[in-house]
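Subgroup meeting minutes
Present: P.N., E.W., G.H.
Scribe: E.W.

1. P.N. recapped why we're keeping a running log of single-chain structure predictions: easier to compare across weeks, and new members can see raw inputs and outputs side by side.
2. G.H. added today's entry (311 aa).
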Amino acid sequence: PKEGEKESRAHKLQRKWQNEVRAAKQSTAKTASWHGVKSKATKGIVWAMNQVKSADLEFLNRVPASISSKSPRSSTDSAHDELADDSHAEGAETHRTVGLEEMVLVYPSSFPASPAQVREEFVSSMMRTKSKAQRDAILATGLLPVSAAIDVLATVVWPFGGLLEVDGVWAYASLRGAKTARSVTKRLTSSNAEASAGAARGGGSGNDAQLQLSFVPSPRMEILKAYLAAKCSERDPKLFRTVEGGMRPTESEVLEAIGWSPGAETKNWEDEQWEIEEVKEDLKVTLGKGAKAWDKWCKGYEKNPGKALKK
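Output recorded in log:
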């Protein structure tokens, strides 16, 4: 929080958890010691939390939520992130629950598809992810009491818990992902309807609930493409060809290509190095999920092409 502002309970819990994770990852305690076991348990919980979210769900959970869903946005409000045109109708009226006005999707210049094809696949993917997130949310929420009970009963032999935390993350991620996808697709529908009405009137709609989806090819994304290809090859070398020359881009090269750098609020060198390592780890995990999803789809296509094309 800014100076003079009271820290919210959610922010305080998140900060404490991040500090605990950092302490666990940087711990040099022996495994047989209390601190060593606690560090292993914390790292195990972090790993499990990462496993419950798919690559598509990761994307939806990184869409920034709006501060106020019904208040008008000022001209100084920043927004950057989401979508465009599709024909999935989900209601005539849209209430903003995602603080986005535009999403810019950057893809490799060598990608063999037109912007229209990329748009169609993107929106279809969002609709599929929304349906799966809704199912997962119901399942994860129903398991919360069971997870809590198991953690309590296991306290005598395992005081670190973990099951409730993992199930809670799964439930939260699924609920937020489904809500985000639903809101975005509704705003896309509103955008289309308003655009059509505006064209019929000979002018723009001026509706601030609209979303604009833009596609920008960039040669810098070839590095990210090569990194993902290497991840796929690691999963199944027979199914996926290795990267040309056998060289895989490093995480540092990928981050440089996408223009990432440590935040300006980083306090010192140690904090900066920690932030860099965490972002590199996040890149590995997220792209690894993407490779896993692609590997699963390709193998499904080999068995049943018709069914795979519907996914």
